[in-house]
Structure formats: structure tokens, C-alpha cells
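Fill-in record for Hydrogenase maturation factor HypA.
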Amino acid sequence: MHELSLMESVIAIVCETARQHGATRVKSVRLDVGVLSHADPDALLFCYQAVRHGTIAQAATLEINRVPGKGWCLDCAKTVALAERFGGCPDCGRHRVQMTAGDELKIRDMEVI
């Protein structure tokens, strides 16, 4: 379960950023999590509950925004939807597609007091 270490890192970044800006409490955190990222949103939520205790983000809510997979097909020369990593182009079927979205896990924003 790599989600535990991912959420430990998220909480560390959130708390450090909040302190750097003079905040005493984090009210909410929003994450962008790509559907191709191999990070399970339910596991992230579960781990978030565990790792935020004793921090200034203890009462903060977590919202996860799922980002769809996209890629650039070198043969079609256009952006296409991707349902899996290293998947083929849904239009031409070839596998010369560079993933451009869907594998991220990033902090979109946070609200602090």
C-alpha cells in the first residue's frame, strides 16, 4: 500500500506550506489524482484519516479530483483519451501514444486559517 507514504508526503507538504504562510490550521485539501496513477482514491482517503492526526491538518477535509487519462497519438497527431497506461490509440489502434495526463498526484489547493 504505497498510498500511506503518498499521504504522509502530502500532509508534510500541506503542513509545511501552511506554516510558511503563517497559518495555524488547515481547513481543506484538494488533490488531483490521475486515473492512470496506480493510486487508489479509497486507500488515499483511508490513509489520509490516519496520517493527519496530531498535525495542523487534523480537521481538514480531503477532496480528490480524478483526472482522466489523455495522450498524444504520434500517428494521428491529436490528443486522444487513454483508458490504460501504454494503451493504443482509440482511433488508429497503434501504440505510439505519449501520455500527457492521468498519471499525476498533486495538491491542487488548500484552505488555511
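KEY FINDING: The longest helix spans residues 3-20.
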